[in-house]
Amino acid sequence: MDDGDHGPRGRILAATTKLLADGGREAVSTRAVGAAAGVQAPTIYRLFGDMQGLLDAVASEGFTTYLTSKPSPDLTADPVDDLRAGWDLHVGFGLANPALYLLMYEPRRGAATSPAAIAGEQILAARVHRIAEAGRLRVGEERATHLVHAGGHGTALTLISLPADRRDPELSTLAREAIIAAITTDAAPAVQPGPVDAAITLRAVLAQTTALTDPEQRLLTEWLDRIADQPASRGLVAVSEPAQ
What are the distances in angstroms from CA 159 to CA 7, 64, 176, 188? Predict the structure, then answer.
């Protein structure tokens, strides 16, 4: 039986984490991990399946540990500020744990995304959803989530690639605010929101209704997605000229 941090599984995870931090992905091999953890290769395979399974476990544990070590991420009354906090947490994790971050988002041709990366994306999607529920999202949730992810991930990678003395401390803030300005509004929609505003907000809360059958709900969701993806100016209502 594995007795927590001091059992074979805990020792293997700790050894792999240290090898990764000291030498990057190239330093992690079955032989190196086994020697550092005091186990044989069959033990690694029995507990983790293969080397990718071990690396996924290390990334997931590292990400979870980082999140739990931070101040309580309780959500506030302002979902846009909560998105800012999430961005800062993401970039902060990358800078504090560059080897783990690169492992989480390592390109995998034909393979599934790492569990740790999926967990991070789920947190982001939930925060974007709250902005949509508040009626403050300019674009569809999926597009907003992808844009924030691309911006935050690109910012983290850029800062990780630079020597510490060349990192611009304002880069992350500038990128964050530019993307937030592109996808959110300063306040809730006007009394007469446009169709894009209404579609985005209704799409976010549609699951709360039981008035529709499943096929009807799927059809309405498709229609709302189509409307939400159309470019439009928020809060502008067309007014007809009076007849002469």
Answer: 36, 22, 14, 34
Q: Are the C-beta atoms of residues 132 and 141 closer than 8 Å to each other?
A: yes
The reply to whether 143 and 77 lie within a common domain is: yes
Evaluated on CA atoms 7, 9, 10, 14, the torsion sign reads positive
pLDDT digits (tens, 9 = 90+) for 47-65: 999 998 999 899 888 888 8
**pLDDT (tens digit per residue) in 177-186:** 999 999 998 8
What's the rounded Cα separation, in Å, for the pair 53 and 173? Answer: 35
Same-domain pairing of 89 and 22: no
Name the band, by pLDDT with cuts 50, 70 and 90, for residue 114: confident
Cα dihedral 137, 138, 143, 145, rounded to 10, equals -30
Domain count, the chain: 3
Q: Kindly report, residue by residue over 74-96, the tens digit of the pLDDT.
A: 678 899 999 999 999 899 999 99
As a whole number of angstroms, the distance between CA 126 and CA 145 comes to 9
Which helix (H) or strand (E) segment holds residue 75: the answer is: none
Using CB atoms within 10 Å of the CB of residue 68, give its burial: 0 to 12 exposed, 13 to 18 middle, 19+ buried. Answer: exposed
Query: What is the distance of C-alpha 134 from the center of its chain?
Result: 20
